[in-house]
UniProtKB/TrEMBL annotation:
GO MF annotations in UniProt: dCMP deaminase activity; zinc ion binding
A Pfam cross-reference name: dCMP_cyt_deam_1
Catalytic activity: dCMP + H2O + H(+) = dUMP + NH4(+)
Keyword Metal-binding recorded: yes
Protein name: Probable deoxycytidylate deaminase
Function in brief: Supplies the nucleotide substrate for thymidylate synthetase.
Names of required cofactors: Zn(2+)
Similarity field: Belongs to the cytidine and deoxycytidylate deaminase family.
Superkingdom: Eukaryota
EC number(s) on file: 3.5.4.12
Protein's organism: Cotesia typhae
């Protein structure tokens, strides 16, 4: 703490300055959502979510997967339209649900959820009832499906904001072997397909 009555100038000419090229909040939290998604065993779609409170503190993460105790070598990963018991949608917990349930009792009212795929109608209900105020999403590839249309109907009615993630740094390279992190901006078109 600096005494306001006695400001001491500790800076010298030519002193090393702080880094300005740091990762932005949205890049950090969406990056963490993506990292969480890499834990998913789903062979088709890996979705990650990261809940952040109003003070930019990470409250929880989640990814899509089978419920606790439901062996993911036994339960189905296919999408058999004729047999719900051989269809993953009957069983899988979505990333948003897991992130909301993983919060260890923390109050998430007013928080923001970063998620790699636009929430479905079931997750929209959870988001609304949990008091989340904002969704930042990466991909909306199911925008024309009734589940996404219903999701937006409910979110709009509940005045929950949603916005597409716009990366500041388009490549966040974490090379664990070399202990190097690189933040890169590319001019190439973004590929928004996460599957
Ligand atoms: Zn969902």
């Amino acid at each position: 703490m600096t005494d306001s009555k006695e400001v001491i100038n500790i800076k010298d000419e030519g002193e090393i300055r702080k880094r300005d090229d740091v990762i932005g909040w949205d890049d950090l939290f969406m990056g963490i959502a993506f990292m969480a998604g890499t834990r998913s065993k789903d062979p088709c779609t890996q979705v990650g979510a990261c809940i952040v409170d109003e003070n930019k503190r990470i409250v929880s993460i989640g990814y899509n997967g089978m419920p606790e105790g439901c062996n993911d070598d036994v339960f189905p990963w296919g999408k058999d339209p004729n047999n719900p018991l051989k269809n993953k949608h009957t069983f899988v917990c979505h990333a948003e649900l897991n992130a909301i349930l993983n919060r260890h009792g923390a109050d998430i009212k007013g928080s923001t959820i970063y998620v790699s795929l636009f929430p479905c109608n079931q997750c929209a209900k959870l988001i609304i009832q949990s008091g989340l105020k904002e969704i930042v999403y990466y991909c909306d590839k199911h925008a024309k499906k009734p589940s996404t249309i219903a999701s937006k109907m409910m979110l709009d009615a509940a005045s929950i904001k949603y916005r597409v993630y716009v990366p500041e740094k388009e490549v966040i390279l974490v090379d664990l072997a070399k202990k190097v992190v690189n933040l890169l901006t590319k001019s190439s078109d973004k590929d928004h397909d996460t599957t």
